[in-house]
Fold this protein.
Amino acid sequence: MRIRRRVRDVTVLLAASAAVLAGCGSENASTTDEGAASTDGPLRVGVSPVPHGEILEFIDQELAADAGLELEVVPFNDYVQPNTALQDGSLEANYFQTVPYLDNFQIEHGGEYEWIEAVHLEPLGLYSDSVESVDDLPDGATIGVSNDPANLNRGLQLLADNGLISLREGTEGQATEADVEDNPRNFEFAPLEAAQLAVSLQDTDASVINGNYAIDSGLSPADDSILLEEAEGNPNANGVVTTPELADDPRIATLVELLTSDEVRQFIEENYDGGVLPSF
């Protein structure tokens, strides 16, 4: 199936959201005069464009109307704004993150969030423009890693699970470069924003890239990675998050029901070639 994307400029979206919060919204806006989110109007969901946005566009086009759900899909190209927009009332939910990322985000940025449901796993992979195997990485190779704590730990764990480094005991779930205990090939780690790792791949010997950014850059996790996370027992599923006051919103319950439906499972399996795996 060819996917029709409704991609809107994030700057315009944020400006429009600011206008709503300033009291310039229409009758259909999902915020009150005080800016607090309500259960009226369309359900505004912040997403990473790929695959989250594509999955929601499929739901919007094929499933939402029959379920009585009106969706507004709001794409973002970073991992911070979908949470801050949820807190300021410009969104009712988001769908882009894992539990470990959310936990770290709350430590660093504060805010109150409610994890609702896991939907899919995007296997984290190691990619390279210059070598076809980890065995070909030179001593002293520069490895790009994410600079946010959850994905940095996850990337280092991928390298450790495959015997390239070892991590200091007791750092499970929170490892940083300082916790690399054994590095026999003297790798250098280059922390970057997660969204930049794929577009700057040529500047490193290899980089650990999140599945959504890999797919968005034309990389196939199944075919192009030189290392790939295992799905079994993986705690890093992406899921739906909202605020505590909206946790029982019936629109969100309907969204979760659709996201974990057989139709969405089939859509994922047919469109992402193993780069996105259902978690339900």
